[in-house]
Amino acid sequence: MNKKATPFIIIAVIAIFIVLQAFFTVDETEVAIVTTFGEFKTSHTSPGLKMKTPFVDSVTKFDKRLQRVDVPPEALLTSDKKRLSVDAYARYRIINPLVFFKNLTNESTADSRIASIVGSKIREEIAQDTQEEIISAKRESVMSNITTMSNLFEISFAEVQNLDNGLQNSDLSLYTKRDQQDNFSPADNNDIASILTNSLDSEIEIKYYVPLQDIWGVEVIDVRIKRADFPDSVESSIFERMVAERFRKASAFRAEGEEQDKEIRAAVDREVEITLETANGQSAITRGEGEALAIEALADALSSDPEFYGFVRSLEAYEKSLMNDTTVILDPESELFKYLESYTKK
Predict the structure, then answer these.
(1) Do 344 and 220 belong together in one domain?
(2) Are 140 and 119 contained in the same domain?
(3) What percent of the chain has pLDDT over 90?
């Protein structure tokens, strides 16, 4: 019984093994291509259970999620002749696994190639922008331009002629540059018509681009600058200039403050002087009015009873002069002695 079952068991094991070899799964995060002895057979970009020829076909899988590649830092010169150390990265996704496998083979090669082309586009773009545009809020448009150009692959005119419909290929992008321009820009309708009719001015330069995904099977989703600083070689001199600038501004603020201090003090002194002069004048007026009233009162007293007024004034003189056992020598005919003499006689 066991001997009869053995062949069936072996056949079943072989069948299971063949079935396992005939099927494979593609994950949600993957794309896969099937090759037969190294030759491309088919590609799979949707997840699920897939089928292949056992022992003959080979399956190569790639991650279709966003991949990040760091661009080596480089010191670049801006359009206003300022040198910046730029450190950037790019994110890309595999769009066409067949083209990717044929031209790049694996992710490591893709990272190297994409870093190279993105670095080249960064150099071209930085050379057209000022330092302020790169380190300010305008950086977003700079990054957008780099991303757009990183998704284009430059080809020669001979390669253009090998394309379907040649210059009229729908995927072909044309960029031109005139003598007075510093950089290439998309060709307008007039330039395109002149290129198609071979009547374009010889002084105008032309560049031909096709989508990067047609060449490498990838799409650059985003390019970002992580850091844009001054190179270490000029950092110390820049710091010294910044310190000198801060000192200059501080000195200007200090001089302005001292000038304002002098103006405020002069205004206060002038106000104090005016106040004191006004008070002294008012005091003199009040004192004069008081003295006038006193004189008027004395005049009234004198006119009403001169004898009594003379007597009171003599008493006041006695009080002030005859103090602390004071000895006074008077002329017998003195007015001051008159009242004392009359009092003694009484």
Answers:
(1) no
(2) yes
(3) 18
Instruction: Give the separation between CA 53 and CA 35, rounded to whole angstroms.
Output: 10
Q: Could you report the per-residue pLDDT of 227-273, keeping only the tens digit for each?
A: 877 766 666 666 777 788 888 889 889 989 888 999 999 999 999 98
What does the alpha-carbon distance between residue 214 and residue 151 come to, in Å, rounded to a whole number?
A: 10
Query: Tokens at residue 311, please?
Result: 């007597």
**pLDDT number for residue 332:** 66
**Are residues 101 and 177 located together in one domain of the fold?**
yes
Same domain membership, residue 122 and residue 30: no
CATH number, domain at 215? 3.30.479.30
Checking 114-118 for CB contacts under 8 A at 24+ apart, the result is: 114/69, 114/90, 114/150, 114/216, 114/218, 114/220, 115/69, 115/70, 115/71, 115/72, 115/90, 117/150, 117/153, 117/212, 118/69, 118/71, 118/88, 118/90, 118/146, 118/150, 118/220, 118/223
Secondary structure string (H, E, C) spanning 279-343: HHHHHHHHHHHHHHHHHHHHHHHHHHCHHHHHHHHHHHHHHHHCCCCCCCCCCCCCHHHHHHHHH
Domain final position from 271, 286, 303:
303
Q: Are residues 223 and 79 in the same domain?
A: yes
Q: Tell me how far apart the alpha carbons of residues 343 and 186 are, in angstroms, rounded to a whole number.
A: 133
User: Using an 8 Å Cβ cutoff, are 207 and 200 in contact?
Assistant: no
Sequence letter at residue 230: F
CB 77 within 8 A of CB 127: yes
The boundaries of the domain holding residue 331 are 305-346
Predicted pLDDT at 34: 86
Do residues 211 and 124 both lie within one domain? yes
Residues 70 and 45 in one domain: no
Domain count of the chain?
Answer: 4
> Beta strands of the chain (E only): which ranges?
23-26, 30-36, 39-44, 48-51, 57-63, 67-77, 83-94, 152-155, 173-177, 185-186, 205-211, 218-229
- Do 185 and 253 belong together in one domain? no
